[in-house]
Every structure is written in structure tokens, then in C-alpha cells.
Amino acid sequence: MKKISLLLALFIALPMMASAEEVMYVMSARAKLLSSPTFGSKTIENVTKGEKILAIEKKANWYKVKHNDKTGWVSRLSVSSHPPIKRARRMAKADSKLMMNSRRRASSVSTTAAVRGLTNIDRSRVSNNEHMDYASVERIEKYEISDADIVAFMDGIKD
Amino acid sequence: MYDTPRTLSLFVVLFLGILFSASLSAENFRTRAHQDATNVNTIDDINAEIKFGQTISARILGRFKEYKNKKLKRYVSLVGKSLAMNSSRNEIDFHFTVLDADFINAYSAPGGYIFITKGAIKAMKDESELAAVLAHEIAHITEKHIVKEFKIKGNDSSATAGLTNLLGSSSSSAKVAFSLSVDNAVNKLIKKGFKKEEELEADQVALLLLAATGYDPSSMKRYLKRAKRINKKTRSRQVNKPTHPPTTKRLKSLTRMAKKEGLHRVKLPKAKKRFIKYGKL
Lengths: 159, 281
Hints:
Chain A is of the alpha+beta class. Chain A has helices at 2-17, 89-106, 112-115, 120-127, 134-142, 147-155; strands at residues 22-26, 31-34, 43-47, 52-59, 62-67, 70-75, 79-80.
């Protein structure tokens, strides 16, 4: 009888121990912990970018998570199993610097490919005889808007 | 009565079965969670993606000129960056550009480069519709449709798969492979279009993104219907063919998704007044 009781205890306990829990991180700026896995359900609390949450279940596009002793649902778009990493803007800028140097030498808007290890012949293959406007790409990358302005703009989404 | 060997065996089998199914479901959950985590890669991967996107964008901008309108550029960028801030990929900077073209279309290149035509904006009635189109393009980037197809990785032992290897390599075969990847990616974006399932996935992610940012998610369907009507009228004069699957299929899929996510009951703003002030062409 003792053996049976032990097995019964294991029967209940082990599957519980096997249940999945995964540490995840909030990725988006304005994630919400909702009472059910649908938009429009009650907001339990707001969670901020970088915060750790414990995912206990996944249902389509939603994770059931624990956060600050509260349990709720977050959209899969808002979380990741890796913490947020620094924006890659600096690296892209470093690349643009290379483009600028090359442009100074060749006085052309289409010479970045050469900097990246492509000769003139290879570059013509890359461009498929089409014009490549790196100057405009660089201008686009330089255009910045502060996070504060974006948040203020989001606050103004109304009818 | 439980002490009979037969009952005991049955009990053990049942126990093992439940344990197995519980651990299997736990494993499936971990696998799914891990698959979702593919949205974040190494810094080398992101750098390679940006470089690939820069090259594709240079090609797009070599073909279509930027529409120079400071007020509109700031407005479109603010709408796009608001959506991007709520997306799963805030490790990259998103850049939004209006193209001086009258047909209706939008494009996205890996690394966060998004382009929308003047014609597409002209067909819009409110900010939520602009957000819908930009959210769809953002979704192609967050779901890494181009990155996955062209196997863009920062460090890869395969010479044809590792973009950094291709860029840094002096071998002509590597350069030709890079050149072919760019050609094929541009062809996919501008002529061939994404696969049907990629487009439908982008629509679905866009719906979630719209709602998470605070925009009316039904804007996507409204805009698609109007764009279809306009395209029908102008198709004979149109040089650039539409690159998306039939609207009817997209509308059906959007309706299904909205119901599944409870979005059909959600009332969120269209932000029409602000669109008329800053975005109306």
C-alpha cells in the first residue's frame, strides 16, 4: 500500500515538475499584461522593455506569463527569450563612413561596393546595370527622430 | 484490491504515459518559444542584415526617387517608428521613405528600410490606414522573410551563406554569389513579390502590431478594398505590377485572424484628423 501511495504522489507531482517555464524578456516599448489572450481584454498591468517575465504557456500568438506575482497574457510580438540588445545604428553608421570615404575618392554615388571588396566589374554584376543610389541611403539613415517625440506622437493617436 | 500486479502495471503505464505527454508538451513549448527567439540574432547577423538591406535600398532608390516633402517624411516616419517601437525587433533602426511614384505599392528591405509610394498614400483616408501598410512592411522584416530565404548570417562557415564572408572575401565566386543574392532579393521585392504565405503572415503580424500600437486594426481591410478598386481602374496604365496575393484571399485571412484575436470587437482610433493635417496628398 505504501508503494502505491508513493506512486500516486509521484503521479501527481512529476507531471507538474515537467511543466514548462521559460524566462523571457519584454521587447516592445508598451507591452501589456492582459487578463486573457485577446486584445481588448482587461489590462492587469503594463510591463516595460527589458523586464524579465516567466512564460508558462503558449497559445497561438500569446504567452501566459508570471510577472510581479501576477499572471496574465502578453502578445508574442512583445517578448523574446533573449534580452533586448543595443540598436545596431552605430554599426550602420560606421559602414556609411566607409561609403563617404569611397565617394570622396571617386566622386560618385555608386562606389560603396568597391569598398566592400567588389571591383568595378563585380559591381556592375551587383547593380545589374542599374543605378545604385547610396547617397540617398545614407541620407535616409541620417534622418533621426527622438524616442521622446515618438512616444509623444503615440500618445496623440486618437479620433 | 490495488495490490494486484495487473492493477499496478496498469497504474505504472498510465503514470508513464502522462509523464511522457507532460514532458513532450513542455518540450514543444520550449521549442516554440525558442523558435520565436530567432527574431533576435547575434550582432554580426544584424550587421550583415543591415549591409544587405543597404545594398537593396540603394537599388530601389536608384530606380525610384525619394519624394521630397519634409512634413510628410516626418509624419510617415513618426507613424512607422511608433509601430516599430512596439515590434519584436527594436534592436534595429527603421527608416521610412516616400517614393515619388504614382502607383500603389510599398517595399521593405532587410535591416529596417521601408519604402511607400506617393500613390499608396494618396489612396489613404486616415492614419490607421497608413499604419496598416507600414505595419505590413515592418512585419516582413520582423519575420525575416528575406533574411531566411537568402540565408543572411554574419558568421557562417558556408561561403555562399555568410554575407560577411561574401563582403570580405576577395574571391570572385563569393562576389558573384553576393551579386546574385542582391539581384534575386530585388527581383523578389519589386517584381516577383513575396510568397503567398509570407504575405499572409505579414498581414497577421501587422494586425497585432496595429492593435498593440493603438490603431484601428480594421484599417487594413478598408485600405485593401480601396486599393483594389483603384488598381482595377488604373491597371491598364500601370507599369509596376502589384506584388501581393489576391485581395480576396488576404481579406478572408484578415477576417479569420481578427476573430481569433478578438480584434473584431476592439474599438481603436483611425486618427483621421491628424492624417488630413500632415499626410493628405
